[in-house]
Every structure is written in C-alpha cells, then in structure tokens.
Design a protein that fits this description.
Elements: E1 3-7, H1 13-23, E2 28-32, H2 36-42, H3 54-61, E3 66-69, H4 72-78, E4 81-84, H5 104-116, E5 121-125, H6 133-143, E6 150-154, H7 164-169, E7 174-178, H8 182-195, E8 204-208, H9 209-240, H10 244-252, H11 273-286, H12 290-317, E9 326-330, H13 345-355, E10 359-363, H14 369-377, E11 400-402, H15 406-410, E12 415-418, H16 430-435, E13 442-445, H17 452-458, E14 461-464, H18 471-474
Parallel strand pairs: 1-2, 1-4, 2-3, 4-5, 5-6, 7-8, 9-10, 9-12, 10-11, 12-13, 13-14
Helix pairs in contact: 1-3, 5-6, 9-11, 9-12, 11-12, 12-13
Length: 480
C-alpha cells in the first residue's frame, strides 16, 4: 500500500489530498499540519475552508484512507511520497523584500524530512515556488540524507478557488517535473501512476524540474496579464463611450485569444497572482533581465491603478467627498464561491474610502467580521505570514460595521459598491434598496453584475466598470 503524506493543510493540500484519497482507495493519504485548530476543523463538520463539493469528498474518505493529523514527523517518516504544500509568502524585509518568496517554511520542512526519514522518499513540491527551489531543497536533503535516497519532483497546482474540486476531478493538465536521471524518471513514473487513476494519460505532462517550476509562475502571470489588459481597456472604454463587455466579446471570439479571463472588474485578487508576478519580477532582476522584469511589473501597476480609479470614481461622483457618508460594500472575498480574502481588491477599495472618512457597512455571505477587520488592519503581505506575526486584536475601526444582510448594509446608505460577483447580488430587490437609501442614490458596480439600465429606471446613478457613463458621471472629474 502506497502511503502519501502532505505537509500543509491549506487551500492546496486539503482539497488535493482529499481528491487523491477519493480516486485512489488503495492509497493511504495523511494531511499533516502543526496548526491544531486547522486539523481539528478538518476533522469536524465545519471544514476550515469553503469550497463547493469539498465537504462531500472529505466525508466520503475521512477515516477510511484519508486522515488529518498534527503528528507531522510520524507520518512523514512512514510515507513513500511526501507532498510539501507549505506557505511561500512574499518577504517583508531583507534581501528581495516586497518581491522575493520567503522559503523559511520550505527549508524547515526539508530539514525535518531529512531528519525523520528512515526509508527512501519522493518529495513533491506542491507550493508555488521560485525556479530553482528544487535545487536548494535537493542540497538540504542530500547533505542530511544519512544514506537515504531522496528524489525531488515539482508538481505545481493549477486550481482556481471556487472550482477547485471540479478542477481536480477533471484537470486541463497535471504537470510533473523531475530530474532527467534513472532515479528521477522512476520517481516521475510513481507520481504519474497516482494521477493515472483518474486523469487521462495525455493530460499528464512530464518535464524537467525547472520547466515545471517556471510553468506555474508563467501560467499565473499570463492569466493576470489578461485581466490587466481588459481592465486597461475598461478605462479607455469609459473615456470614449465604448462598452468593455462588447469589446471583450468581440476580442474573445478570436480563437487565438479566446473568451476566458476577459471580464473587466475592480481588479484581480487572490493569494497567487500578485505574489507570483512579484516573484517572477525578482527572478528576472536576479538573472540580469530588467526589461523582462519591467514588463511584468506593469501587470501589477495596472491592477493597482484599477482599484485607485474605482475609489476616485466613487469619491468624485459624490460631490468630491464621502466624509461621514454611509457606503455599503457588497462582497469582500476576492471572487465568488470562496471565503478567501487574500489580496482581495475590496481591501484597497475599503481602505481608500476609509481614508476619505466614509462610514462603511460591509456584507459578504462567506467572510466573517473578524476576518474583515483583520484584513483592514494589516500591512501589505502580512496575511501571508503565520497568525502570531499578524495583529492580535485588530484596532477597531469605528467607521466600519459588518452586517449579515445586503438590505441591512444598504439601509440609509448614500452609495452601494459591489466588489464580489456573488450570484445573490444579481437578484436583490433593488427597488427596495433604492427606497431605503439616501438620495441621490449611487451604485458603483465593480464586477458588472447588475442590469444598469433597469437600475437607472428605478432612479439609481449607476457606474459600471468600462461601460458608457451616466450623464451625471460625465459631468464629474474621473479623478477626485
């Protein structure tokens, strides 16, 4: 019986291992983490992450061939294949601060693996790591191996939050990178055999280590670039009277381009895009490629510009001040169908409005008040570091309330900002919302989810990203 152990019970490790357990009943899968509350949650009826379909998969396998444990060393020493899915946050100080990945947790995991191993092991990189991480890990393992043979593989994840289980059941591709040596090729085959239980062989791509590591950064950079491209166009559409949805539809019909990731919005978020691009920028700079680094930096710059532009549009439209005005924020997660708030555009938009002394009332169906307050109290990149390094009790922001109902959030508000594309926001009773708001009533749609024409008929002044502007907005400066 093959034994798999995954170090790290987060957004990647938990769902990935649950699906492997479901699809490979003959393999024993143990997910380990030093966080007792996290493992307790995985063993309970309230999993630590929200992901459609995850509950059912975990309940099907847990206690049979899927286990969650804090006994890290025991299960690592017993495993044949060790997936390492620990965090690789962006460094906040020292060499490469603000760009480079912090490999502290990876290194300590590698040292622990070397220390407790009594048999040969395949060690699989599952976290997003900089190119050449495998080489560093290999050195740590071989210099501490005590005669044990370790093979390092890169097997990056390409999950999208909100559809992770569907993605795992039916992946576009599974990428496995290994050393081009007999031992490396044998290890690649062993991991390929695991995935072959449910993934068609033609979708399992085998490459060298460095190609696999770089492919993950490249994929995220290309996706983020598409979003920044359409967002840059959205600003031009507003200036010229074009409609970004029509432009994106026309562009997406070109089979060389395709329609995906062409929805204009208030900006991209999530744990990977910005982090991976900054990492890519740093690697380019370290390899003497400043022009390449600057090219990718621009993707981040346009994303930051889009968030600033949105805040400026809100403030400028409302007589150049939101001081003391109630602004309802609908949606705080970085996208629908997840409770994840890492790098969500809502943080920058809320901070921008709070900076202009707005009174915010926030509603999101999946994000807790504690999480929202914590996010708004943190410095950039703090979210990616262990909780003991984050603000313990976030400073209370008096001009902020978190409510559990969209109608409560919008009551007596001067404006509504939609920042996450939750399906429920499409079907709210906007007549009821309008009747209970201050007038003029503004709606700023950062995700293009509402029917602007219908809302204007109700009486709203509507701003939709990249759409022809209301007469009211045309008379206001684009920048406050």
């Amino acid at each position: 019986m093959v034994k798999i152990c995954c170090i790290g019970a987060g957004y990647v490790g938990g769902p990935t291992m649950a699906v492997i357990a479901l699809k490979c009943p003959s393999i024993e899968v143990v997910v380990v983490d030093i966080s007792v509350p996290r493992i307790t949650a995985w063993n309970s009826d309230h999993l630590p992450i929200y992901e459609p379909g995850l509950d059912e998969v975990v309940k099907e396998c847990r206690g049979k061939n899927l286990f969650f444990s804090t006994e890290v060393e025991k299960h690592v020493s017993e495993a044949d294949i060790v997936f390492v899915s620990v965090n690789t946050p962006t460094k906040t100080q020292g060499l490469g601060a603000g760009k480079a990945a912090d490999l502290t947790y990876w290194e300590s995991a590698a040292r622990m693996i070397a220390e407790v191993s009594k048999s040969d092991k395949i060690v699989v990189e599952k976290s997003t790591v900089p190119v050449k991480t495998a080489e560093a890990i290999e050195k740590i393992l071989t210099h501490n191996s005590k005669g044990i043979n370790f093979q390092i593989l890169s097997n990056p994840e390409f999950l999208a939050e909100g559809t992770a289980i569907v993605d795992l059941f039916n992946p576009d591709r599974v990428l496995i990178g290994g050393r081009e040596t007999p031992g490396g090729e044998k290890a690649v085959k062993a991991l390929k055999d695991v995935y072959a239980n449910w993934v068609p062989e033609e979708r399992i791509i085998c490459t060298n280590l460095w190609s696999a590591e770089l492919s993950k950064l490249a994929a995220n950079a290309f996706l983020a670039q598409r979003i920044s491209s359409v967002n840059a166009m959205s600003a031009l559409c507003e200036a010229t009277g074009a409609d970004v949805s029509e432009v994106a539809h026309a562009v997406g019909k070109d089979t060389r381009i395709g329609p995906k990731f062409l929805n204009a919005s208030v900006g991209f978020g999530g744990s990977c895009f910005q982090k991976d691009i900054l990492n890519l920028v740093y690697i380019c700079e370290c390899n003497g490629l400043p022009e390449v680094a600057n090219y990718w930096k621009q993707v981040i710059k346009v994303n930051d510009y889009q968030k600033t532009r949105f805040v400026n549009r809100v403030v400028a439209s409302m007589f150049n001040t939101v001081s003391g005005k109630k602004v309802a924020i609908l949606g705080f997660a970085f996208k629908k169908d997840t409770g994840d708030t890492r790098e969500t555009p809502a943080i920058d938009v809320c901070k921008g409005l709070l900076g202009d002394k707005a009174m915010l009332s926030i509603y999101d169906p999946q994000v807790t008040e504690d999480q929202i307050r914590r996010d708004l109290a943190m410095n950039k990149f703090d979210w990616d570091h262990p909780s003991h390094l984050q603000p313990v009790s976030p400073t209370a922001i008096k001009s902020l309330s978190v409510v559990w109902d969209a109608y409560d959030a919008t009551r007596d508000a001067h404006a509504v900002c939609i920042l996450t594309e939750w399906d429920e926001f499409r079907s709210l009773d906007y007549q009821r919302i309008y009747d209970n708001m201050q007038k003029p009533a503004f709606l700023f749609d950062g995700r293009n989810v509402v029917d602007a024409k219908k809302l204007r008929e109700i009486g709203f002044i509507v701003y939709s990203i990249g759409k022809p502007l209301d007469q009211w907005l045309k008379d206001m400066p684009a920048i406050a």
